[in-house]
Structure formats: structure tokens, C-alpha cells
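# nightly structure sweep
# worker-07 picked up a monomer target from the shared queue
# config: single-sequence mode, recycle default, output format = C-alpha cells
# input follows
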Amino acid sequence: MLFRSQLAESWEMYVEASNAAGLEVPRNRDLTTSMMRVWAGSEFVTRACIDDPSLVTGFLDEGCLLADYAAGEYPRRLARFLEGVRDAKTLGRRLREFRGREMVRIAWRDLAGLATTMETLANLTDLAEICVDLTLEYLYQEQCQALGTPIDAEGQPMRMVVLGMGKLGGYELNFSSDIDLIFAFPE
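# output follows
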């Protein structure tokens, strides 16, 4: 019974937060049943939805709870999310926001039974890879402007490479995985 009362309390907090944000509370029975199942399995998702009720309405508007992203969707979404970023501090904040939002979406799909285990692992890995890739690109450009472009022995420009080790390299990230990275230049 305590469990049901906690879900009911979370629902009331979500309704209050939605009303305060001027958002319509979804009244679709299938969605609320799914939401209760997901919330029962993840305090993280519950708290995220209460803290930002626009997550649920945004996911519904985008249709990204019922279907997995198409190939190349993560780079497009993150690029849009990072538009206008001008400094590393803002980049870090926006990346954390994007990661949190996408972790909610991935967890929701997993806990609601809308994604297979393999889809969930692939989504978590794709998310980590695109965050590393776009961050590397941003910071590389920033450092080239500040310090010059790294060059090899023949004077040709070199790009830094990032090697994903462990579960990232094996495409097996899970929700509690950290990522192990090696940063290197070709020379």
C-alpha cells in the first residue's frame, strides 16, 4: 500500500508542476498506465518528470516514446540542442541537460517494454558516442583558435581521436556504466 501511495503522491506533484507550467496533463489512460509502470521502476524518471513536466508533453509531441530514433537522429538532436553555445561552461550545462532528457526517454522506453534490451544498450551507447563526438569537435575548434592547429611532422593538420574502451567500445553501455576514453593524436 505504501508503494501505491508514493505513486499517487508523485502523480499529484506532477499534476501540480504541470499546472504551474501551464501544461495540459495527459489524460490518456494507456499513457498514465505506462507512466505509473515506468515511475514504479525508476525514481530518476519520476523526479525528472515532476521537475520538468514538459519532458512528457515534448516526448509525446515528438512521438519519440513509441518508436526508436532513426539512424542519425542523435547528431541532429544534439546539434539543435547546442545551437548558440559559445563557451565551455554553457556546453557542459547543455550536454548535461541533453543527456538527462535522453536518459529519461531511454529509461521510459525500456521500463514500459517499448524497447528491447539490445535497443536500450544501443541507445545508451549512441547517446554517449554523440556527446563525446560533438564535445570533441567543439573543444577542438576552440583550442585551435586559442593555441593553433596541431600538426604532424610533415606540417599537416592532425585531429585528436577518442577511443572508447570497455562497454562503450563493445556497444554495451547500461544505465550505470561509466565510459573509459583514451585521447590521442595520430602522431
